[in-house]
Amino acid sequence: MTALAVTGFVVLLVVVLGFWSGRDKQSRSSIEEWSVGGRRFGAFIVWFLVGADIYTAYTFLGLTGYGYNFGVPAFFAVPYVVIAYPIAYFFLPRVWKYAAKYKLTTLSDFVRERFQSRLLSVLVALSGILFLVPYIDLQLSGITGVVQVAGQGVFKNTAAVGTTALVVSFLLVALYTFFSGMRAPAWTAVIKDLLVWIVMFGLVLTIPYIWFGGWGNMIHTAIIKYPKLLTLPGKSPHGSMNSLWFSTAALISALALFMWPHSSTGALSSRSAEALRKNMVFLPFYNLLLFFITWLGVVAFMVLPAHPHDKTFGNFALLHLIHASYPNGVIQGLMYATVALASLVPASIMVLAASNLFATNILKDWLMPSLSDSSVTLIARGFVFVITLIALIFGILFPTSLIGLQLEGASGIVQILPAVFLSLYWRRLSSTAVTIGLVGGIAMVFLNHFTLHLPGYDGFWGLLVNLVLVILLNFAFQGQVEKNLETNKLLKDELV
Amino acid sequence: MRWLILLIIVIGNVGVTPLVNKLFPLVLGIPFLLFWLLLWMVLSPLLTWLIYSLDNRAGRI
Hints:
The complex is a heterodimer.
Chain A: H1 2-20, H2 31-36, H3 43-54, H4 57-70, H5 77-102, H6 107-115, H7 118-150, H8 158-180, H9 183-212, H10 215-225, H11 243-257, H12 261-268, H13 273-282, H14 285-303, H15 317-325, H16 329-367, H17 373-397, H18 402-413, H19 417-425, H20 431-452, H21 458-474, H22 478-487, H23 489-492
Chain B: H1 2-15, H2 17-20, H3 32-57
Helix pairs in contact in B: 1-3
């Protein structure tokens, strides 16, 4: 009970902070203020904000769940985040410069201006929303998981309490996002990440001693008793998570990281391109945490009793590990609160990004061009509740294996890479070729997932088809390219 | 040069997985695959920092 009370208290504190960060009316005065904080965040806040995008329920529950279920394949996340930053270093600051100059707030905006193509821009926005919803759903599980584990023996029906807590906490988050915009996740991310660092160091320093008497002995035990867990494919079904899967999953996830609407929106809220460049050098400090968190999944497998009949046990392996390791309710509560916040803070950025895509790139650009700027801002803010409700409905009706959802999402979202990354370096890239590539790539992802089952990662085969289509078809549309080069103000800039 | 460094980072991290997918030799008591990932986790930001300083020197900001 103490644990739950502490968790609830910390979460409420952060919700209050979320409202407080938007006390200034300016934070919701325009779409640029609301969705990217008026582009005023310095390197320090961006560091927390982008960190908040990455250290989500996906890391704490998804990756440890993978570690628990499969062993070392979960470590694909390490090279994933390691290479994500150097790749982003090459394109994010450049996209930022255009975004700042032309007041763009989404990648879809950038694509519209770069290609002068509404069709491509709308497709990019639709992909963003479509693949973001499962990612938001993954965040929901952070709350239900905490209530399920912390509520053992406290409530008669933990599932019902969990659903109630889920709905209440997400509506509160939607409300402060509606109110404060990007300033809310920025400030709450600082608290969340401070807790994350403290809790992670606490876990890393104490868990090996609690269960094994030390680091050396922990690793030694793993090598002697579970050698199969420590090389690929671990104990993944049919050995599917082999080296090819590992490499392609890491590469595609890395390429996808800043294609996600929430990460790119977070990055665009930066004050300068220089703040972004610096962040790509210093963000990797977070990676150290990721390595140990993933390892805790393997530890959970070694020390917790097996639950062969409970298929979702792995998803909450970290929470069960915390429960079994620390008898103190306050410590448990702080740790559960960290996991809960790691779900809520990123969820706030995600719903914000999805709502902005809908209002700006689908309604204003396509369906209702006559909308005034102030109506777009209001619709984007109101749409926060719609996206939150859609995510809640899906999350409650179809709770499935956590990480699988996000992985499929990454496979899908990475297909906008040619539109965003290639387009910066390849001036004679045509919008029609990129559009066909995008559609073909996404089709290939689904095709491989449901019927072809080629080894490796779905997104890899999708991106391959995508790139081949772009390269083959681009020659056929050079007339279109000429026209774009002549009339596009963005391509005339020296920024490229 | 900056693209070459990026290529090295990508290959080091995900280009040689089948070759390093081993339990032994243990390095610092850590299984080899995990050690390799840990090693590149440290090397990659240093290489990114190198690109950053090269860019600064070239005035490409």
